[in-house]
From TrEMBL:
Belongs to the MMACHC family. It is found in: Cytoplasm. Its cofactor is FAD; FMN. Its main location: cytoplasm. GO terms for cellular component: cytoplasm. It comes from Helopsaltes ochotensis. It catalyses: apo-[alkylcobalamin reductase] + methylcob(III)alamin + glutathione = S-methyl glutathione + cob(I)alamin-[alkylcobalamin reductase] + H(+); 2 cob(II)alamin-[cyanocobalamin reductase] + 2 hydrogen cyanide + NADP(+) = 2 cyanocob(III)alamin + 2 apo-[cyanocobalamin reductase] + NADPH + H(+); apo-[alkylcobalamin reductase] + an R-cob(III)alamin + glutathione = cob(I)alamin-[alkylcobalamin reductase] + an S-substituted glutathione + H(+); apo-[alkylcobalamin reductase] + adenosylcob(III)alamin + glutathione = S-adenosylglutathione + cob(I)alamin-[alkylcobalamin reductase] + H(+). GO terms for molecular function: cobalamin binding; cyanocobalamin reductase (cyanide-eliminating) (NADP+) activity; demethylase activity; FAD binding. This is Cyanocobalamin reductase / alkylcobalamin dealkylase. Its EC number is 1.16.1.6, 2.5.1.151. GO terms for biological process: cobalamin metabolic process.
Length: 235
């Protein structure tokens, strides 16, 4: 069942520059405190959805051109929301719950921890402080970051698709590719991400197959309130 769902998602989302990676809710809940658990049985089938560099041209620009008059909030969020909501139409006999990376619970906690989901699904490796043996940061707060084996840091985690009626007790967990494998590189990655994230160097910590276009870099480097203008939209 999981394979059929995965193939349908690939054929639907792949042409849009989106990837879907399967996981069991139990894998995610097992590594988090109860306050962050997803409220589904452990064997529930879920997918984490990533946007790749090609999403900008394949999904965002066509969406903006078509829906120009209806865009009233962040265009990328609205584009992803549109396409993931339409996924439900591909599964008329299944319940499909969608969670987006920008959604919050009433407690102001995020609905899901995106980087943890990507890691347990084997989509991208979530490098954290605990992955460094000789920690050089003392009392500084150090945030972790996911690196994709193909795109490095040139991607984003956009949402979850959950299939509450599909249980997959025998789904095997894939390990994420540990592509930043040396201590030195991991320190460099976390240093760049935490203290120099604006220059984007952390994204190229490994040799990547594809990165954002210059147009896309300019878009994401622009303050959100001014991005409407870049896409020819009035705010």
């Amino acid at each position: 069942m999981e394979r059929r769902v995965a193939e349908r998602l690939r054929s639907t989302l792949g042409p849009l520059g989106l990837e879907a990676h399967a996981f069991k809710v139990g894998w995610y809940n097992a590594v988090l405190q109860p306050a962050f658990h997803l409220p589904y049985p452990d064997d529930t089938l879920a997918f984490v959805v990533l946007s790749t560099p090609s999403m900008f041209d394949k999904a965002l620009k066509p969406f903006v051109n078509k829906e120009r008059l209806k865009i009233i909030r962040d265009p990328v969020d609205q584009c992803v929301s549109h396409h993931l909501s339409r996924v439900k139409e591909k599964f008329p006999d299944q319940r499909v719950d969608v969670m987006f990376d920008y959604e919050m619970l009433p407690s102001r906690k995020p609905k899901f921890l995106a980087q943890t989901a990507a890691h347990v699904a084997g989509a991208a490796y979530y490098y954290q402080r605990k992955d460094v043996k000789l920690d050089p940061w003392g009392k500084k707060k150090i945030f972790g970051v996911c690196i994709h084996p193909k795109y490095g840091g040139w991607f984003a985690i956009r949402g979850l698709l959950l299939f509450p009626d599909i249980q997959v007790p025998f789904l095997e967990q894939p390990a994420p590719v540990d592509c930043v494998s040396t201590e030195e590189k991991r320190i460099e990655l976390l240093e760049q991400f935490n203290f120099h994230w604006q220059d984007g160097r952390y994204r190229d910590i490994i040799e990547v197959k594809e990165r954002y276009s210059e147009e896309q870099k300019a878009y994401f480097a622009t303050p959100p309130a001014e991005r409407f203008r870049l896409l020819g939209l009035s705010q």
